[in-house]
Design goal:
Bound molecules: NADP nicotinamide-adenine-dinucleotide phosphate
Strand content: 15-25%
CATH architecture of the largest domain: 3-Layer(aba) Sandwich
Helix content: 40-55%
Distance between the termini: 38 Å
CATH topology of the largest domain: Rossmann fold
Largest sheet: 8 strands, mixed
Number of domains: 2
Oligomer: single chain
Length: 270
Amino acid sequence: MGLSIALVGCGAMGSALLKGWLTLPDTKERFANFWVIVPHREKVEPFLKDPRIGWISSPEQLSQTPDVILFAVKPYHLAEILPQYKTFETLFISVASGKPLSFYETYLSPSSVFVRAMPNTPLSVHQGTIAFLSKVSLDPQNKQMVENCFRGMGFFFWVNSDDDLDKVTALTGSGPAYVFYMIESFAQAAEALGFSKEISLQMAISTFEGASIYVQQSGQSPKSLRAQVTSPQGTTAEAIKVLERGDLYHLMEEAVKAAYKRAKELAHEG
Ligand SMILES: NC(=O)c1ccc[n+]([C@@H]2O[C@H](COP(=O)([O-])OP(=O)(O)OC[C@H]3O[C@@H](n4cnc5c(N)ncnc54)[C@H](OP(=O)(O)O)[C@@H]3O)[C@@H](O)[C@H]2O)c1
């Protein structure tokens, strides 16, 4: 019998999760049904053609307790939303940034099991990175249920503290946006050299995609692959000099630290 999941929130992350779940090769065996709990129906509309999906506007409309209730809402909405789930005894997962495990304990039933997760949107195409955190080590059945929700959606791993999860938030949670930004800037550089918008974007995407797959499959470090294509006095060397003048290493470190600091601040907001 497949899992029943209640998904609370269907914005960027909630809909990425749904797309990922619905397109897994074994989706029909793995997932029996989904309730999407959001105030308005429009966001869920595109998914409703799948008979396993139902829209409800509040948890009171749930006809049974789901195997998993997953929160994909903004951290500042949690204090208003969580009390509505106090009577449910089930496995809860929250993908919200910043709020520590202790925050959820004050709202949810003590007999529930709670897991924080930090996914990213590429899981919608099964290329995500997902980290999990639970307070105590989970019993094998619950651990398996958590992993069952995400298996096949990308690379996943467990971390040991809220602090680690905040670091993951700054790295892989926000990370796709850093890469989208780089793809954007690469495409803009191609357009500045006179290529069409369409070809420029395609060149940017295939260069990032090709380089990522190559670094993964070659078994070599990105640094050594970079050295192999950077001959002294060549074209690449000229470009790398410009990137080094901008201190890309330092810039990325500062960006990730800023996101990590923001994740810490979110713990105390809302
Ligand atoms: N986006 C990412 O890349 C990413 C990555 C990792 C983690 N996260 C985490 O995922 C969470 C959601 O982020 P997001 O980017 O998906 O935000 P979002 O696009 O703003 O989506 C939030 C969703 O919550 C719904 N919502 C608002 N009030 C609600 C309520 N009372 N009950 C049920 N649903 C309610 C919204 O519905 P309406 O639109 O109808 O208001 C919307 O569907 C955040 O906590 C974020 O930290 C996001």
